[in-house]
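Below is a filled-in request sheet from our internal design queue. Each sheet records the structural input a requester submitted and the sequence that came back. We keep these sheets so that new team members can see what a complete request looks like end to end.

REQUESTER: design group, bay 2
PRIORITY: normal
MODE: inverse folding
CHAIN LENGTH: 218
BACKBONE (tokenized):
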């Protein structure tokens, strides 16, 4: 596994992003001669209002001295990127259709997975979008961290399962004039069947084409 300990060190998160948030390290495997290196990126994690955490305070979340009230012990499994999201079964099903012989059960069997925003969103009336919570501080940390991950891991293709996170990163790299030649796009989140299976949309068909065009070794 790559060593992410120096990412962000000396910046906004002075001790290093993944020294402060070790549970948020990208998870997955790239050990295959059948495909290239795919990085799948979600939007964020989500905490309910009653979670004992500093997650609603961006300054405290990224810079505060009280690290005990960041990710409570009972939430560490929920935010760890090795978690087997049930909705990602649809990603695995598509991977198995594209990659002959794949036995993909979890996305990290054939790819790496990572959430773009480092601070959890607040669940508001069942709404799970970081858009309502996003601040300039979140944008800076998320953008700079992903740029460093790209430089370290050197993925061959990046697919976001969040249009919002994808557009935020595009805006970030354009504002920083960051040069990126890696194929990068978004698909709809597979948790929503109507948009995932819409043949004219940005769901399964688009995911399959991106994998066929950029991921499979030919």
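RETURNED SEQUENCE:
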């Amino acid at each position: 596994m790559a060593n992410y300990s120096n990412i962000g060190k000396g910046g906004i998160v002075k001790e290093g992003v993944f020294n402060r948030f070790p549970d948020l390290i990208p998870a997955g495997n790239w050990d295959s001669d059948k495909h290239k290196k795919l990085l799948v990126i979600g939007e964020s994690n989500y905490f309910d209002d009653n979670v004992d955490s500093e997650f609603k305070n961006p300054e405290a979340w990224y810079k505060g001295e009280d690290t005990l009230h960041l990710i409570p012990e009972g939430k560490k499994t929920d935010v760890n990127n090795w978690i087997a999201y049930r909705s990602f079964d649809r990603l695995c099903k598509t991977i198995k259709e594209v990659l002959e012989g794949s036995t993909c059960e979890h996305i990290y069997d054939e790819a790496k997975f990572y959430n773009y925003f480092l601070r959890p969103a607040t669940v508001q009336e069942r709404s799970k979008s970081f858009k309502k919570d996003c601040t300039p501080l979140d944008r800076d940390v998320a953008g700079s961290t992903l740029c460093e991950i790209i430089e370290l891991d050197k993925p061959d293709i990046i697919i976001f399962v969040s249009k919002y996170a994808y557009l935020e990163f595009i805006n970030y790299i354009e504002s920083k004039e960051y040069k990126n030649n890696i194929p990068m796009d978004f698909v709809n989140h597979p948790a929503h069947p109507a948009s995932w299976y819409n043949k004219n949309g940005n769901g399964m068909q688009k995911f399959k084409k991106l994998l066929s065009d950029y991921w499979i070794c030919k």
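SHEET NOTES:
- The longest helix spans residues 136-153.
- The beta strands are 27-28, 38-42, 46-47, 112-115, 121-122, 157-160, 184-186.
FILED BY: M.R.
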